[in-house]
Design goal:
Length: 116
């Protein structure tokens, strides 16, 4: 595996849609010297489709389905021992880490239209 870029032992789903074939750009970004890395359009499309399917399924089950800033959401989840129970009851214990609040109504309408 020498020369292969691996940030995580197990890549989070959101990261799987960001495959880049530009080693130099990845090295520069990992070192903090670049803000953007070109990524594969087809990988991004698959990531969007999988994420949308998961979000739609969660919404259909009455569970919160939003997108969150990972580090902030992890801190919230780890600091609140009741977070899982709140989520299972339809609550959103990660609400303050949401990154899609302004789009949720439109996304919900789209998910609902496809489901019916």
């Amino acid at each position: 595996m020498q020369g292969v870029c691996l940030i995580h032992r197990v890549r989070p789903l959101a990261c799987r849609g960001h495959a880049s074939h530009d080693k130099r750009a990845c090295v520069e970004a990992a070192a903090g010297r670049a803000d953007a890395v070109p990524f594969s359009g087809p990988h991004r499309m698959v990531q969007v489709l999988v994420q949308s399917a998961l979000q739609a399924a969660l919404r259909q089950r009455g569970l919160d389905w939003g997108a969150y800033e990972l580090n902030h959401a992890l801190v919230l989840a780890l600091d609140d021992v009741d977070a899982h129970a709140q989520w299972r009851k339809g609550g959103d214990p990660l609400a303050s880490a949401a990154v899609d609040s302004e789009f949720r109504d439109a996304m919900a309408a789209g998910f609902d239209a496809v489901a019916h």
